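Morning run. Coffee first, then this:
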Amino acid sequence: MAKLLAALIQIEDSPRCRIRLAAPTGKAAARLTESLGAALRKLPLTDAQKALIPTEASTLHRLLGRPARQPAHALSRRQPAASGRAGGG
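And here it is:
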């Protein structure tokens, strides 16, 4: 994963580039944070490029902004889809 992120950063070397990391569980997010940090230290990136790569992963639920037990349809009513249509559909 670190090499893929490094390649993306090198292709789109822009401050507009925004990357977020998420995993299904808190334990998986912690492991992703740890392993990615170790791998990134070994890659040939500039400090500016390294600054574009997140240093911490979160859970999918936190990234989506909803509690783990909340039904998916409740999210779509609160936050319409990116297409701009109401109701998430």
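The longest helix spans residues 26-40. Good start to the day.
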